[in-house]
């Protein structure tokens, strides 16, 4: 290639186009070899499979699902609307034109089983301003689906992929030339592909949970004006250049869980009872993070989220690289208000990456007891 002005943007655009073109070639394939390797057998198999339609729910909640699959592989149908919306990030006036899957940051958690087919209808309503798509880290081929799902406002598409790898995986928007901006504008979420026979510890024993929460961590880059006040905009497109300038400092103004400071604290806190086993899915589509449950532990942790690897046990803090979703499972042993944080404590307590779990039940003195309450030292 003699054109030396190829930028990273055009490289990715080229990859997307190559992916799309290869699909065209697949559709038009006439050779016996291609027919043997490509779609016919798969299409027949998929057509004969049972179909299940799942209504997605807003995080931190997760749609009802079986932990151990019943029956054989299914086609699991999901629908997501892309919604561009202005959201409040904190109580100090920071607003942001978010791009969202289904209206929330993060987008909803999808749950299927290994071997199932995920069939997503992705809708970009005419009220939106921008083109969007979706890249599933759990999918194989065509930019994770990004090359086949570019929908302009007023368009919809349907993508199907086979969930061949068990684990929790990020999905995110990835339009050529604007990937980072869309991802840090909130357009990401996660999918959990459970092994058909459920989660297992290192000895092969079933690990099940009583409830599951989904925490999506998001770094935001909100521009300020000359006086240091948060800037506001009338549309996502209008905010684009200023946000990119802040993005390139690699210094987020906000690092939050579930779309804003306090989204999972106070009245919005997660809840559990002593003796309950809770699974926490945690995704970060762009930056590294290090979850920690203050006063508890990670009983079973798949920090990089992939269930063919045995879980680590009894962890204090675990590391989730940017572009990854992880899973932690913990059985609560004491009542109280637990803080679940990114243990970069500046990001937790100054920038917002903190949640609460309110746990009810009886206190266990054997595990912890205040032997002497604070009193005057000289008394
Ligand atoms: Cu997008």
UniProtKB/TrEMBL annotation:
<dbReference type="InterPro" id="IPR008972">
    <property type="entry name" value="Cupredoxin"/>
</dbReference>
<feature type="signal peptide">
    <location>
        <begin position="1"/>
        <end position="27"/>
    </location>
</feature>
<dbReference type="InterPro" id="IPR011707">
    <property type="entry name" value="Cu-oxidase-like_N"/>
</dbReference>
<keyword id="KW-0560">Oxidoreductase</keyword>
<feature type="binding site" description="type 1 copper site">
    <location>
        <position position="187"/>
    </location>
    <ligand>
        <name>Cu cation 1</name>
    </ligand>
</feature>
<feature type="domain" description="Plastocyanin-like">
    <location>
        <begin position="91"/>
        <end position="196"/>
    </location>
</feature>
<dbReference type="GO" id="GO:0042597">
    <property type="term" value="C:periplasmic space"/>
</dbReference>
<keyword id="KW-0574">Periplasm</keyword>
<dbReference type="Pfam" id="PF07732">
    <property type="entry name" value="Cu-oxidase_3"/>
</dbReference>
<dbReference type="GO" id="GO:0005507">
    <property type="term" value="F:copper ion binding"/>
</dbReference>
<keyword id="KW-0677">Repeat</keyword>
<dbReference type="InterPro" id="IPR006311">
    <property type="entry name" value="TAT_signal"/>
</dbReference>
<feature type="binding site" description="type 1 copper site">
    <location>
        <position position="172"/>
    </location>
    <ligand>
        <name>Cu cation 1</name>
    </ligand>
</feature>
<keyword id="KW-0285">Flavoprotein</keyword>
<dbReference type="Pfam" id="PF00394">
    <property type="entry name" value="Cu-oxidase"/>
</dbReference>
<dbReference type="GO" id="GO:0019333">
    <property type="term" value="P:denitrification pathway"/>
</dbReference>
<protein>
    <recommendedName>
        <fullName>Copper-containing nitrite reductase</fullName>
        <ecNumber>1.7.2.1</ecNumber>
    </recommendedName>
</protein>
<comment type="pathway">
    <text>Nitrogen metabolism; nitrate reduction (denitrification); dinitrogen from nitrate: step 2/4.</text>
</comment>
<keyword id="KW-0732">Signal</keyword>
<comment type="subunit">
    <text>Homotrimer.</text>
</comment>
<dbReference type="InterPro" id="IPR001287">
    <property type="entry name" value="NO2-reductase_Cu"/>
</dbReference>
<feature type="domain" description="Plastocyanin-like">
    <location>
        <begin position="212"/>
        <end position="361"/>
    </location>
</feature>
<keyword id="KW-0534">Nitrate assimilation</keyword>
<comment type="similarity">
    <text>Belongs to the multicopper oxidase family.</text>
</comment>
<feature type="binding site" description="type 1 copper site">
    <location>
        <position position="137"/>
    </location>
    <ligand>
        <name>Cu cation 1</name>
    </ligand>
</feature>
<keyword id="KW-0479">Metal-binding</keyword>
<dbReference type="GO" id="GO:0042128">
    <property type="term" value="P:nitrate assimilation"/>
</dbReference>
<feature type="binding site" description="type 2 copper site">
    <location>
        <position position="173"/>
    </location>
    <ligand>
        <name>Cu cation 2</name>
    </ligand>
</feature>
<feature type="binding site" description="type 1 copper site">
    <location>
        <position position="343"/>
    </location>
    <ligand>
        <name>Cu cation 1</name>
    </ligand>
</feature>
<keyword id="KW-0274">FAD</keyword>
<dbReference type="InterPro" id="IPR001117">
    <property type="entry name" value="Cu-oxidase_2nd"/>
</dbReference>
<keyword id="KW-0186">Copper</keyword>
<feature type="binding site" description="type 1 copper site">
    <location>
        <position position="132"/>
    </location>
    <ligand>
        <name>Cu cation 1</name>
    </ligand>
</feature>
<feature type="binding site" description="type 1 copper site">
    <location>
        <position position="182"/>
    </location>
    <ligand>
        <name>Cu cation 1</name>
    </ligand>
</feature>
<dbReference type="GO" id="GO:0050421">
    <property type="term" value="F:nitrite reductase (NO-forming) activity"/>
</dbReference>
